[in-house]
Each structure stands twice: as C-alpha cells, then as structure tokens.
Write a structure and sequence with these properties.
The chain is α/β, with parallel strands linked by helices. Helix content is 35%, strand content 15%.
C-alpha cells in the first residue's frame, strides 16, 4: 500500500470547528503529523464533546462573537496554519430564506472566518515554516450550484471562495498562502439525514464520477497538502475533493 506522509513537527495549527466531522479529521491528521493543534468549538469545554479532543488544545469560540474572535487572534504569537472550517446550516434552526437567518448564515460561515483570518495576519506573517504560513478555507459544492434549502450557507461559501482568492493576492508579499478545499458529499453528521431518503442520496451520489460518499480523512489529506512545503507555489486555488462532482 502506498502511503503519503506529512511532517508538521513543531508547527502551530488552528482549526476552527475541529470537534467533529471534517474539522476533527483535519485536526487529527495535523496532530498525527506532529503539529501542535488548537481546535475551537461552541461548547464550554472539550469534555462536552463525544469526540476525543485530548490530542488538542481546546478553545471555546462562537464565530458570531466578534469580541471572542478578536481575543483569540490577539493571543496568537505565531501561527503556521489556520484552517477556517467552522460553519453551520440553519442558524438557530431558522429558515435561511428569512433575511435575518440569511444574515446569520453569512456571519457564521464567512464573516467570522474573515475576521479571524485578518486579525491573525501578524501571527501568520511571523511563521518560519518552509513554504510560508497557510490559510485553508473549507468551502462547499454549494458554492458552485443552487442550493435552495440553504441559500445563506451557499452564498457564504461562495463568498469565502472569493475571499480566498482576494487574500491570496493581497498577502502574497507577506509569505502567507491562502487556498481552499471544496468537499463534495462527505459522510459526516451534517449529511447523515440524507440516508433517511435513499432516493435523494442515490441521486446526489449519482452526480459524481466516483459513485460514493467521501470521507473526512480524504478532505484532511488535501488540507495538509495545501499547507505543506510541497505546495509552496500554490495560492488562491480551490481544490475540489468531490469525486468528480464538478466534472459532470
């Protein structure tokens, strides 16, 4: 079996929303590669989560709390990798076609990430990691197509994709690379309800060239690649981990 191994020994990594699903897989992959990983979550402590968070430093963070985001960034002396993964659909369980819920979806999924990234600029610029510091934003296939059940989430992910490209150009001179991964249909708690509708699930899987759901570790591998020295000439890219969904 061929295995791709990464070495992030001694590097500092911050993964927002790293307590479950794709975020937890990303944080775990970095930790397994030797990184010092901090994860954020909305609950009070690491003990409030089912997942094992013992390999990480845990910080409570609500992405809509501007003061909390600023405080977290202000406490960073140096940061090698920032992964903006935190996000949610149906903020406060509201219909995203409601203008207030739409605004909340933008706040959670893009505005908080923008604030944290910009506030972390000095810490990222202080990185001595070969290839430079990296920001990796987790977007979605919802950024590429209409998603009428979650229009706020879809708009936010499209905005985060545009922000990725703008930051990549804006910060190129600072030695900070900014890229994004766009997962396809990944088997997580967020997509679990789809299994209750086999026809809908089959139709969605059928849109991809590789006819199955992806896994969180498959997304994590792309994030680690975009953060390592091997991708030093890559910035402003959106890396689709979608099983060929966009190729159809």
């Amino acid at each position: 079996m061929n295995r791709l191994c990464f070495d992030f020994s001694g590097t500092s990594v911050l993964v927002t929303g790293g307590t479950s699903g794709i975020g937890h897989a990303i944080a775990s992959a970095f930790a397994d590669a030797g990184a010092l990983v901090t994860v954020t979550g909305t609950r009070a402590s690491a003990a409030d989560y089912e997942a094992d968070l013992s390999p990480f430093t845990f910080r409570q963070l609500e992405m809509r709390d501007a003061a909390a985001v600023d405080a977290l960034a202000a406490g960073l002396a140096a940061l090698d990798v920032l992964v903006n993964n935190a996000g949610a659909v149906y903020p406060d369980r509201r219909n995203e076609w409601d203008p207030d819920a739409f605004s909340a979806a933008l706040d959670i999924n893009v505005e908080g990430a923008m604030r944290l990234t910009v506030r972390s600029r000095a810490a990222l610029a202080a990185s001595s990691m070969p290839g430079g510091a990296s920001v990796v934003n987790v977007v979605s296939m919802a950024a590429f197509r209409s998603t009428t059940i979650v229009p706020g989430y879809s708009a936010a992910k499209a905005a985060l994709m545009a922000l990725t490209r703008n930051l990549a150009v804006h910060w190129a001179g600072d030695g900070i690379r900014v890229n994004a991964v766009a997962p396809g249909l990944i088997e997580t708690r967020m997509t679990a309800p789809m299994k209750a509708s086999p026809q809908k699930l089959a139709a969605e899987i059928g849109r991809a060239a590789i006819a199955r759901m992806g896994t969180p570790p498959e997304v994590a591998a792309a994030v680690l690649f975009l953060s390592c020295e091997a991708s030093a000439f890559t910035t402003g890219a959106v890396f689709a981990v979608d099983g060929g969904y966009l190729a159809r």
